Each structure stands twice: as structure tokens, then as C-alpha cells.
Amino acid sequence: MVKMPDEVIQTLKKQNPVPVATASQNGIPNVALVGFLKVMNEETIMIADNFFNKTETNLKENPEIAIVAYDGYTKKSYQIKGHTEIKTSGPEYTAMVEWVNSVMPDMPKKAAVIVHVDGVYNSQPGPDAGKKIV
């Protein structure tokens, strides 16, 4: 795992919804907009699975994920790549349930998707587009 720079974390914290990309074991891509996503620490992101269908299937087949962090004001953009664990019990799941309940108690709480950050990339247009930051 790698540590996300503070600027990336702050950009991600301001964004809602957040585009999240997955792919099936056969490489068929899927992008979903996620409303419940938060940074747990510099190396970990939590996503609440409220309504995942294709995303859930993809993560079970292929645990790799990509997340776009974009600041419309500064126009800075980053891509975060990582691998996931799906938790339906235990402390991470309990933390997700408490978090979702504090915002929208009637929202389904199927699972906590824990993202372990493997890399952060520059997604801004220009000569450094796609360059690995960490």
C-alpha cells in the first residue's frame, strides 16, 4: 500500500458523488457513482455498498478498483488505484453501518468495501497526465 498525499485526500473529501470503476474477470468495465465514500487514513478508503449490483459482482471476481478524485474549483484531478476487501461483519462493517445511519438511516447497508491504495496518478490534462505520483 502507498500513502495518498494530503492534497489527494482533501480533493476526495470534497467530492460527492465519486466515480468508481471496476471490471469483471473478463475485463468488462463498469463505472458507478458512489455517495458514501470516505478516507479512513492515508492508505485506506471505505465505500458503503448500498445498492451495488454489477460493482459487487465485479469486486468479487476481480478486487481491483479505480477511483477518480476531482476538484471542480482548482481543476486538479487524480486517479486512485487499489485492491478491495468486502466486509459484511466485523469492525469495518460496524463502522460503515454507524456512518451510514448517521447520515441516512433508511439507506441499505449491504457491505463495507475497504480499498487499500496501491497507487495515485495525475489525471490532469498536460504532459504529466497519467504519471504516477505515489
Automatic annotation (TrEMBL):
<dbReference type="Pfam" id="PF01243">
    <property type="entry name" value="PNPOx_N"/>
</dbReference>
<feature type="domain" description="Pyridoxamine 5'-phosphate oxidase N-terminal">
    <location>
        <begin position="4"/>
        <end position="122"/>
    </location>
</feature>
<dbReference type="InterPro" id="IPR011576">
    <property type="entry name" value="Pyridox_Oxase_N"/>
</dbReference>
<dbReference type="InterPro" id="IPR012349">
    <property type="entry name" value="Split_barrel_FMN-bd"/>
</dbReference>
<protein>
    <submittedName>
        <fullName>Pyridoxamine 5'-phosphate oxidase-related FMN-binding protein</fullName>
    </submittedName>
</protein>
